[in-house]
């Protein structure tokens, strides 16, 4: 039975994966551990940007974009303004 449908990033999903081979595979594609990913999610949610939803936040955590262009490719339809973009990127830099 499905209890919750909250989108998770790959590092956040590690908490629920029991198979060591799958965990190892996921870790190859992630730059953050589970704890840091959760902290970053909390900070991004705390920004209270209406244009950011849970799916966007999960993608940001997975990719950790460095530049405005990378962020705009992750969130093509969100139309972030300059201030919102800079706020998101500065929050990401705290976790690199």
Explain this structure.
- The protein is mainly α and 96 residues long.
- It has one domain (10-93).
- 56% of the residues lie in helices and 0% in strands.
- The chain has six helices and no strands.
- The chain has helices spanning 10-13, 20-27, 34-46, 54-63, 68-74, 82-93.
- Helix 3 (34-46) crosses helix 4.
- The radius of gyration is 14 Å and the shape is globular.
- The mean pLDDT is 93.
Provide the descriptors you would attach to this structure in a database record.
single chain, 96 residues, mainly alpha, 6 helices, 56% helix
The N- and C-terminal alpha carbons lie at a distance of: 37 Å
Query: How many helices?
Result: 6
The Cα radius of gyration reads 14 Å
Which class of secondary structure composition applies to the elements?
A: mainly alpha
H/E element order: HHHHHH
* Arithmetic mean of pLDDT: 93
Tell me the major beta sheet: none
Strand content: under 5%
Into which percent range does the helicity of residues fall? 55-70%
Structure summary, number of beta strands: 0
Q: What's the overall geometry?
A: globular
**What low-confidence regions span 5 or more consecutive residues with pLDDT below 50?**
none
Overall number of domains: 1
Oligomer: single chain
Brief digest:
This protein is mostly helical and 96 residues long.
Secondary-structure blueprint:
Layout: H1 10-13, H2 20-27, H3 34-46, H4 54-63, H5 68-74, H6 82-93
Helix pairs in contact: 3-4
